[in-house]
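User: Show me sequence and structure for the first protein, then do the same for the second.

Assistant: Starting with the first protein.
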Amino acid sequence: MQYITIKKASEKWNLSERRISMLCRAGRIIGAKKVGKLWMIPDDAPKPLDGRTKEYHAQMQSMNSYIVKPTIPRYTEEGACMNAVRAFEKIYRRSPQNTAFTPYRICPLGAHSDHNLGKITGFAIDKGIHIAYGPKQNGVVEIQSLQFPKRAQWHVNSTPEVKQDDWADHLRGATIALNNRYPLRVGLCAVIDGELPIGGLSSSAAVIITFLNALCALNGIKLTKQELIQTALEAENKYVGVSCGKLDQSCEVYCKKNHLLYMDLKDDSYKLVPQNPNMKPWKIAIFFSGIERSLTGSKFNMRVDELRSAAYTLKAFAGMEYGKFNETNMRDVPREVYAQYKDCLPENWRRRAEHWYTEFERVEKGVEAWRKGDIEVFGKLVFESGRSSIYNWETGSPELIKLYEIMTQTDGIYGGRFSGAGFKGCCMALIDPDFEESILEKVKREYLRAFPNLEGKYSAHICHSADGVKLR
């Protein structure tokens, strides 16, 4: 990208140098950055409108007229794509060039293991993130979510290097990660809408992948599935600061309707295991606790560090080679080493390791049950996974633990557990469709009896398995 000085911009826009300096400090010139004591301005940056003019106020009114006022809950059950399209048309007074969609995911087995190279399973579901978008040739990214009140804006070549602590940080990180691989020139204007409440279904990964899909399409970039997953992961790990693995992104990219994703994170190999034709009917139920969660605001990263500390210590006890702490994974440590030295570990580290090893085994048993069409055995393993998450991984808010307990005592639920990090958010369950009505009624009644203050915030939704994202 070419940059010009304030003096050149003054001549180009017929504004005083003092006025341009003030606009730079106020953040009114897209892509302007300070180098030493000098402001450098992108050569193709648009001339900022005079804040005293009717044109400026008309533009701001148009841009802000669809800003969403925070409400609880704020989500779309159906029609999120059309919501995004209509909002785009209202803001920009034209139709979007295109739309894109990324499904959410659930992980029945394999929870809390991907970051240490375990094995995972997953389904994409028929709810997710929709985006309506169009190009901005000046490189500006201008994006709004119908779930949040603040519109975000940055330039593809001068994205803030540190997070801004708002909903769009995931997308800033995605812009940087993509730009490091392929030079970007075209920005976008976009509106995003998501189905279902936020929390536990990997909405952050879904919004990153949706955004990357749109930005790639506008810049003529063709990512492979592996590149898309890695780019999205970097946005969360390096920019947002969440120590997650590839589970979320892989499910949302690789999954196929009525197939179980079975993936080994040691070498990223995966299989799509088809549903056995003799399997009993099933649906996916999502029970939202009414409590939203943030991974970086939770104890998620601490749990990952505790597991890695256990792996590092076990290697030392066994005389194994070990290098950097962040490059150590529990997958490196044989089960026999853990069995021999587990009593030497601090209790919380031992519990994290116990969950990881037993979850690894549950994944392998669960895949075999799925192949045989035994959803009852599969569901029982999912319940066991949920129990281990509570007692060994030590996650779960009181609300989610209560939901889990209710599910274990409800007829027609094959199996269920927390979805996502498990500190807040939601629980997922595989259910018998014949019991759908009674399940929804009982879970709601029992949950709101325990937490009456969450009336109007709790919600339940029936979903189905779906295909992963379609690359542009």
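Switching to the second protein now.
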Amino acid sequence: MPVVGLDYALDGAGFNGSGRERMKDQESARAARSGSAESVETVQLEGGMEVPAPLARAIDLVKDRKGRDMLLLDLRGISNATDYFLLVTGTSDTHVKAVADHVLEELRDDGVKPMHVEGLRTGRWVLMDYIDFVVHVFHPAAREFYQLERLWGDAPTVAFADES
């Protein structure tokens, strides 16, 4: 009987040998940040939720590029992987890439660099992992298919109105 499961998948013998290293890097980065003397500046959103300033900036940047159906999921206390998911829909592959590129470039200019980025070339689903928050920019078909808001349905949310 073949060995299956998360341990196998994350093991070097599994299909995702680099996954274990990435998780270790992420855990180290989170531990270093939580143990550091510098505190992360927070911003209060319209709904009253306090978020890290770089996440609030990412929200504004998505609005700049007319990202649609923006939803913030508060995963604190639900997931150890990250504190927030920002879900956004683009209208096409090109729009998905434009939104993601804008967030990446502007946050990088602010000194905030992602730990990991996936999907930028294809434009169907771009994932930008900033450790404390993850920005997901979806093509409409990918967002409908994966339904992350249903998967994390027990998380508190803040929905943002689409900009005209």
